[in-house]
Design a protein that fits this description.
With about 300 residues, the chain is of the alpha/beta class. The protein is about 40% helix and about 15% strand. The protein has one domain (about 1-305): Aminopeptidase. The chain starts with 9 loop residues before the first helix and ends with a helix.
Length: about 300
Amino acid sequence: VGFWQSYQRYEAIENLMNDLQDKYPNLVHKINFGKSFEGRELNLMRIGANSNEKKPVIFIEGGIHAREWISTAFVTHFANRLLIGYENHEEDIKTLMETFDFYIVPLLNPDGYEYTHTKYRLWRKTRSTQKSSSCFGVDPNRNFGYEWGGEGTSSNPCSEIYPGTKAFSEPEVKAETDYIMNNLAGRALVYVAVHSYGQYLLYPWGWTDKPTPDNDRLDSMAKLATEEMAKRYSSKYIYGMSTKVLYAAAGAGDDWAYGSASIPYSYTLELRDEGYYGFQLPPEQIIPTSEEAGDGLIAMLLAIQKND
Ligand code: 0X9
Ligand code: ZN
């Protein structure tokens, strides 16, 4: 409803999680998994029917890059779509909700996100202070501990792709990866990092141009998803291995999920647009973007469910 007609602030997103939990107490559980550098609570939603430790997990990470507002908007829209669909007995959604437990992080980088709302719209990184420099922040999508500090990073603390002084230096990245390792290891089947912009569905590797052993599976699922994404509004999403279709960026979440956490289906989804508005996607596009991306994600998860 009104929530997806404009981009929401941190507090409104927190309130949405509370509201969804109140409205669907059997389907939604809000979980705190840490605190940001500036002390904001990091929360996620577990969503599923009869959630239990045996169900395979779909982990969806939103809002790691501060200026990519559509990421958080989509991820919350998707959570709501699952809940409404289940309530309305939609066949596909019922299947997904009964098969999987979704762990949905709407906003992994709340400090940066709030900064883009109050000070500087195009901020990307976290807001941590650096010992060696007066520049702020680390690129959280270069801060994961898999091939950390490799290609596509810069040791200059003022750079947009500064990976930090060491892997997991950022409390947001540390909290998310600890949560996955301590609570979801072995049952996480899918990881999707949601970003913008460019309209890509990317899979590992993002640090080397050698393909993973799972390349064929990753590729065929991405093909299916992007075909589905085109159906509603004819939007074109490009799919492929990160280093082939985009660029090398070591220390990102997708490579860590695949390489360190052994999550077999790991993706980075770059939402709208293709560059006209870029990060400043008009709020009128929140709903159509969320609908088409959700279509693709649902189709892909159904295919994974059948395959497994
Ligand atoms: O550079 C990034 O972190 C992602 N693009 S963005 O414009 N949203 O910043 C792409 C990451 C793709 N994955 C890897 N290269 N591992
Ligand atoms: Zn991003």
